[in-house]
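Hi Prof. W.,

I finally got the Flavin-dependent reductase prediction working! I wasn't sure whether to trim anything, so I left the full sequence exactly as given:
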Amino acid sequence: MTPELFKHIMRHQAATVVLITTDGRDRAGLTATSLTSVSADPPLVLFCVARTASAWPALSVTDRIGIHLLGEDSQELARRFSTTGIDRFDHPAIGHDEGLTSVAGAVAWLECRVVDRIPAGDHHIVLVSPIRGGHRGHNSQEQRGPLLYHDRRYTTITEPKEGVKRGETPAYGTETGGSQPYITGRQESPAVGVSGC
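And this is what came out:
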């Protein structure tokens, strides 16, 4: 399979958009769509980073990483952390809390300890163990859905409209029936793309 065909096929996968950050002397961050839960006991997650990513030198040596799952209204932050040649942290939504970068547009966050870094093709797989974390609960007045990346665009999910019956298959981009969410609100992404696998 050619790399071009592989990339084209993988564009059909919708993925959660996250910011990966490091702090301290080698502060760095990037936008990624490769976050995956690996294990609940012990808790483990992984993400992938291109070997050419500007944040890789810092990620390759740090022992602590922040993972911030972005909310549906955080396209600007996602674009910012995938743009080179700027101070990605110079934004009003970016703060610092207990020694870790905080992101106002995040629906959930994890502080993680690096367990392993595994070379994989033109990327590195970074396996991390969450130390602490938090999320905006279902009863939060500030509740918002996650930001997704699909077919080279940022998008969101919403609940189906009333009256749609389970099993109906409306046209693409509309509700899927029952209680299943559907992808909507597609936004063009910048030419720089999204880092990660």
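The chain is about 10% helix and 45% strand. Does that look reasonable to you?

Thanks,
D.
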